[in-house]
Amino acid sequence: MKISFIKISAIFFLTFFVLSRAGYSQTMDEMWDSSSISKENPNLKWFKEAKFGLFIHWGLYSQLAGTWKGKNYYGSGEWIMSQARIPVKEYAKVANDFNPVNFNAGEWAQLAKDAGIKYIVITAKHHEGFAMYDSKVSNFNIVKATPYKKDPMKALALATAKRGIHFGFYYSQFQDWHEPNGGRNSWDFDESKKDYKKYYREKAIPQLKELLTNYGPLGIVWFDTPGGLTKEETRNLVDSLHMLQPNSLFSSRVGQGLGDYKDFGDSEVPPIPIKGAWESIYTHNDSWGYIKHDMNFKTPKIIIQLLANVASKGGNLMLNVGPDGSGNIPKYSIQFLKETGKWLQKNGESIYGTTYGLIPEQPWGVSTSKPGKQFLHVFRRPHNGKLWVPDFMGKVTKVYALSGKQNLKWKKSGNDVIIDLRRDSETFLKWFGTELSAENKKMLYIPEGFAHGFQCLSFDCQLIYFHTEFYRPGAEGGIRYNDPLVGIEWPIEITTISQRDKTHPYLDENFKGI
Ligand code: H79
């Protein structure tokens, strides 16, 4: 369904302070922890500045799309072999139908670039055991076992390098449900009789060596769910792989505390700032691998708030998308990532190269910082228009909206800073993006498939004048910012509609995917 199509560029506004209190620099030095930074692995520099990565889960499970023998599975699409207890031989036949002819490395890399993403990590082999690259170690791979016959990883390594995006592989080093001696397939093989060492020797290590040899410099090797190795054996693995690529960063899930940076649990952000190099991983909908009936995509607003929240604790966000078996990235992922990129183009200085802010999480939002600057990410505008920044120890010289750079009124009250966000409607419109104006009706964006309800992507607003029967071309209505003090409304006009979705896909029992 196509409704209307209007883009809003700004998602929320930001302000920052310039600090210049005598004596504060020492506090700042302590805060940046320069002593520990100088000792830190220099390869971490790009990673710590990057802030935004793209995770891609792509494998045979993408072809199954969350359905096996007519039954829909939910949760994590890449787990379907385990969830449905699919025998190895039967699962291997999925490769006969896997032909991702729509895969286009340049388009994927360009999407990442447009979204403001600085690194990509893609599944070279997930727990299912299928290699998504040209492997000489096992024939269970995309070149030997599928009609596609090509190596998409080669193309992606080149396309990312061309655009200055760091490239990396996810490799499930212990779990391998295809192999008699790989971890965690208990439905085909007896776990107690497995020789994990043999599996490591004959598959995991040789495949990792292929990946670290044949695809140019890798920014990251992303290990997952370690097992079957002692600390000494893990150290040997790490050392032998680092010999091949000394600059490559290994994720902490290589195990035994031997990673180069820390990953928290899947979909976890620490509640307080954390020093050092670390990453939170989230997926765009609810599944890592493609599931056609999972439509629970995070809006650009949520993605940006997640990014700011992770940055406010000092880490990177790596957001996952799950392309389908034909090689298409879901259209909402494409749309919403591009929207995120537009916001980053204008507000990226509050994210890239920052670390956690000096102001702890507040009811209105979070903060990030650079030397001399604090960026306030205001997720919820205070109803009375007064933003309280409690217990701020630095000297404030200037406060302004990042978008539009207008100076804001502020005052100190004890150690608190109070910023006046009450503004006339014209200034307010400028803060939220120059594309918004009463003359310009192109400002309301309703994602396809969500016509049952209106989502305001940029800030707290609602659709007015509309009744559902007015969802038709030519229908007029408006959006209103949900704050009586501001009281701004904008007219909108629906330009096109195709078929109308009456319900959210998740609520529709008969929904078969779009
Ligand atoms: O690759 C993604 C996951 O498949 C992988 N890590 C991320 C990056 C991962 N491996 N193991 N786990 C996550 C933890 C296991 C979760 C499970 Fe479940 C809970 C397996 C079975 C129940 C999730 C829900 C998968 C199936 C149902």
List the helices and strands and how they pair.
Elements: E1 14-19, H1 24-32, H2 34-39, H3 44-50, E2 52-56, H4 60-64, E3 67-68, E4 71-72, H5 80-83, H6 88-92, H7 94-97, H8 105-114, E5 119-125, H9 142-145, H10 152-162, E6 166-172, H11 196-214, E7 220-224, H12 231-244, E8 249-250, E9 262-266, E10 278-283, H13 300-312, E11 316-321, H14 331-347, E12 355-356, E13 365-370, E14 373-378, E15 386-389, E16 396-401, E17 410-413, E18 416-420, H15 425-431, E19 461-464, E20 476-481, E21 489-493
Parallel strand pairs: 2-5, 2-11, 5-6, 6-7, 7-8, 9-10, 10-11
Antiparallel strand pairs: 1-14, 1-16, 3-4, 12-13, 13-14, 15-18, 17-18, 19-20, 20-21
Helix pairs in contact: 8-10, 8-14, 13-14
Ligand H79 binds next to loops.
Spatially, the strands of the biggest sheet line up as 8-7-6-5-2-11-10-9
Average pLDDT reading? 81
Number of strands: 21
Unreliable stretches covering 5 or more consecutive residues: 1-38, 429-458, 467-471, 496-514
Name the overall outline. Answer: globular
Rg value = 25 Å
Number of helices: 15
Give the distinct bound molecules: ligand H79
- Overall helicity: 25-40%
The assembly state of the depicted protein chains is single chain
Structural class: alpha/beta
